[in-house]
Write a structure and sequence with these properties.
By secondary structure, the chain is of the alpha+beta class. It has helices at about 10-25, 40-45, 75-85; strands at about 1-5, 35, 55-60, 65-70. Strand 1, helix 1 and strand 2 form a beta-alpha-beta unit.
Length: about 80
């Protein structure tokens, strides 16, 4: 599972959002991608220590196994994802 922590007002979030969606479509048989608006879900954001957005958390078996803070190119995210498949 990949969770994209974002907000509507966040410019870098608008850049990485389509990339995350694309990865979700390409790996749809292996990965679930979700988006979480930090403004509407402050308790969840606090629980996972989200201080900057965009932040992507990579979960495996219910546990956070990797994290990406900030907007990065697609190959960086794919490499992180494939490491945990």
């Amino acid at each position: 599972v990949i969770v994209d922590f974002w907000a509507i007002w966040c410019g870098p979030c608008r850049i990485i959002g389509p990339i995350v969606q694309e990865i979700g479509e390409e790996y749809s048989d292996q990965v679930i991608v979700g988006k979480l608006d930090v403004d509407n879900n402050p308790n969840v954001s606090r629980k996972y220590g989200i201080r900057n957005i965009p932040t992507l958390l990579f979960f495996k078996d219910g546990k956070v196994v990797d994290k990406q803070v900030g907007s990065v190119p697609k190959p960086v995210l794919v490499k992180k994802l494939e490491k945990h498949l």
